[in-house]
Amino acid sequence: MPMSSSIHHLLDAVPEGRRADVARRYAEHGPALRACLHSLYGGAPDFELWYGRLLCAAGALHAGRSPALAALDTARAAQPDWFLGQQMLGYCAYVDRLGGDLRGVAQRIAHLQELGVRYLHLLPFLKMREGENDGGFAVASFEEVDPRLGSNADLEALTASLRGAGISLCADFILNHVADDHPWALAARGGEQRLRGFFHLFPDRVLPDRYERTLGQVFPQAAPGNFTALPAAGGWAWTTFYPYQWDLNWSNPEVFFEMAGALLRLANRGIEVFRLDSTAFLWKREGTNCMNQPEAHLILQALRALASIVAPGVLLKAEAIVPMRELPAYFGQPAQPECHIAYHSSLMAAAWGALAEQDAALVRSVVAGTPVLPPHASWLSYVRCHDDIGWNVLRAEAGEGSGEDAQARLAAISRFFAGGEGGYARGEAFQSSDPHAAHGTTGMAASLVGLEGAQGAQEEEMAMRRLLLLHGLALSFGALPVLYMGDELGQANDYSFRERPDRAMDSRWLQRPQLDEARFAARHDRGTQAGRVYAGLRALVSARQRLPELAAGAPRTLLPASSALLALARGPGFLALYNFSGEPQRFMLEGRWRDVLAHGALAGEIILAPWAMHWLQRDHQQY
Ligand code: GLC
Q1: Residue 87: helix, strand or coil by DSSP?
Q2: For ligand 1, atom 7, which residue shows the shortest CA distance?
Q3: Given a cut of 70, is residue 176 above it in pLDDT?
């Protein structure tokens, strides 16, 4: 169908005053949209009809954007770098743990503002499966907020209040799977042919067994295998994650149609950023690990193009926990962009690994291997999140140089954080009972750095340094840094999940505590541990806000330093030094520098105390 005729489908429902803008955006992004969709679904005999129907629906959804969101679209389209500045700071929380429900979250806006937060990622809050639901990652409806957390009206009120406070709401868009009690899954189970086509269902084990030969496992202990038997309906369903999370079949154009509509409807409720969950798994191909397939990228590029046409205020963020070499593809190409943001899980894991090894080698290798991003794109940096620290993303880096087996090296790191080797950490090995294999590590940051177990002021001081070192790196790397709820107060592990049969098998619940009200109330009191963590973190955040060198896109270089030391320069004017070891480290400065945090002038040789960090700005007064 020529562009000129397909555009009528798009513009039909669009109000007169917005047509020119939408038409202009279609001229820009329509070719990519059509090309991606044609590659994916062009073989279907009714492709043209389907494409027209998609544009029609997208146009109608654009018409449903409120004047406030339409204004945001215009502003964001005019300033596509709006999320790259050094003032951007994210915060991630579960709705119930932060505020009880969505209305309670609105009561926390002042706290977020005090921290300098501009972006709030609320973990899944849409209607979730009854019973076990993977913390809401088993979605029973994309169209309604979970009644335990509020209503759609509450969501719209919250997004409006956040927008008013300069905070963008990010929500998970769980597009790889739905809950087994989602109406699509129920209908498929009931034998409805159209809905059976939404999933990967098999009559017997023949194909599942063939696929299994090359598939990995995400939860090898709690949910082994990738397929689940459906006794009542007969056959097997593809379930990459838990057995109650049914993978969607994205090779079916109707799945694209429904999911694109769901995303745009949520955008119309004021969600500005979508965390595209488990993006690596969207496309299945026998003989592969069914991750990072080219078609998965085409799906994401098509969603990006569609959003750029009808909701250009929206950002897409890739949650692809994959090795560094697979990550850049999630940003796409300048002519065919994909996600605006992607988690830098290699950086996060490498920083923890470096702490365990008391050697910055892993981080250096990740930083050196991090490519420059296309324009208007950013990494997401973080210290902890609701998931485990997955070690397997570091296999390539862990195999470099040391002559050691990568797997053994990562397993040693994992053992260290599980409290092994007489260390300070109080975490757990995730989904792995094999001491020679490394899967993941769970635990709150404060517990992993030794704050939970610290005895006396000296140990607490060392643990605090380790915590701030990790935050310092996330804040200075050149990314959108996202804090994880509770970390600003140094909250420790929550062991209560062991009492709950629906959670006991998944130790990620260790790091999902309620916001500690007592610590929260004490956050301004430096006589308390919470107060000291809060003050330390806020000092870093406010220093960062004044340093344009720390913006996402500013250049980064590694300077030579002793092995335990990471010397990260951001342009010629800024240098961050991180001592990953418990031994003092020397570093020779060239020229005169000012310590941004301690406010002193520095030159020549400096000695970094154990686990100390410095943020230095070149002292221009000499010139
Ligand atoms: C993502 C989420 C994780 C969840 C999984 C399945 O990786 O971060 O918490 O278990 O997807 O939805």
Answers
A1: coil
A2: 278
A3: yes
Closest residue to atom 10 of ligand 1, CA basis: 134
- Cα separation, 10 vs 20, whole angstroms: 12
- pTM of the shown model: 0.97
pLDDT in tens, 238-289: 999 999 999 999 999 999 999 999 999 999 999 999 999 999 999 999 999 9
Helix axis angle, 253-268 relative to 294-310, nearest 10°? 40
Residue 373 has pLDDT above 90, yes or no: yes
Lowest mean pLDDT among 34-43, 172-181, 229-238, 278-287: 229-238
How many angstroms separate the CA atoms of 104 and 90, rounded?
19
How are the residues of the chain apportioned to helix, strand and coil, as percentages rounded to the nearest 5? Answer: 45, 20, 40
- Count H helices, E strands: the chain? 21, 24
Q: Whose CA is nearest to atom 12 of ligand 1?
A: 137
**Rounded distance, CA 356 to CA 358, Å?**
6
611 CB near ligand 1 (under 6 Å): no
Residue 6: what pLDDT? 80
Q: Tokens 């609320």 map to which residue?
A: 122
Write a three-state SS string for 170-183. Answer: EEEEECCEEECCCH
Residue type, 180: D
**Phi/psi class of residue 608: alpha, beta or left (left: φ > 0; alpha: ψ in -120 to 50)?**
beta
Q: For 501-511, what is each residue's pLDDT tens digit?
A: 999 999 999 99
The pLDDT assigned to 621 comes to 65
So what's the pLDDT on residue 623? 43
Tokens read off for 400: 């470099």
Q: Which atom of ligand 1 is nearest to 508's Cα?
A: 9
Q: Is the CB of 248 under 6 A from ligand 1?
A: no
Token pair listed for 585: 């480290």
pLDDT range class, residue 599, cuts 50, 70, 90: confident
Q: Is 381 in the pocket of ligand 1 (CB under 6 A)?
A: no
Please check whether residue 302 is in contact with residue 256, taking contact to mean a CB–CB distance below 8 angstroms.
Answer: yes
Cα separation, 212 vs 224, whole angstroms: 11
Q: Which of 129, 137, 221, 242 has the most ligand 1 atoms within 8 A of CB, as the residue to mutate?
A: 137
Ligand 1, closest atom to CA 240? Answer: 6
Q: What pLDDT was estimated at residue 182?
A: 98
Q: How far is the CA of 278 from the centre of ligand 1 (A)?
A: 6
319 is an active site residue: yes
Domains along the chain with CATH numbers: 78-180+248-549 (3.20.20.80), 183-247 (3.90.400.10), 555-618 (2.60.40.1180)
Catalytic residue flag (residue 459) = no
Task: Give the Cα separation of 378 and 83 in Å (integer).
Answer: 8
